[in-house]
Amino acid sequence: MKADQAKTEMRELWDKSFNGKWDGEIKAPAIAKAKELYPHLDDDEKRFAYHALGRKGVALKGEKPSSAPAVFVGDWTEDEYKGYDCGVRWNGWASPWFPLEVVKELVKEQERLAKDCAECPILRLDGETLINEYDGETERINPTLVKTTDGEKMLYDCGFGWTWEVKLEDEE
Hints:
The chain has four helices and eleven strands, in the order αααβββββαββββββ. The protein is an alpha+beta fold. The protein folds into two domains: 2-55, no CATH class; 68-166, no CATH class. It has a three-stranded antiparallel sheet with strand order 2-1-11. Strands 5-10-9 form a three-stranded antiparallel sheet. The protein has a three-stranded antiparallel sheet with strand order 6-7-8.
């Protein structure tokens, strides 16, 4: 019974990593890819769980998943920001990583919003350090070398506990 439940849970994780699409067109290539990526694992169920957890930002066996390019939106703005998604979520919300040029755009947007909002977070750059001031707290964020699907990039962790979402390709 416990083994069947564990397999079901692993399958659910795998299914979610494909947005619920688990048909013949995806299943066979996915299994083949999992075998290629994780030859050290001895069965498909372990590979499925390993892949699904890796997509959620869980590092297994000391490996870190690569961050993929993504477009992020927040519920406080209509602007879109291009960055990288490593799959980590905070209370279900995305935690984007942005390059310096995008951080500069975000700082400008927050400066504009703060003019009309006394409770809005204030972002500013001090050299290459991003300063996030909110509710009497100050957070200093330095760029970090992050492994991405585009190679290694210097990026800023800009989750901030904000309500970010990854914009899907089919969303207008």
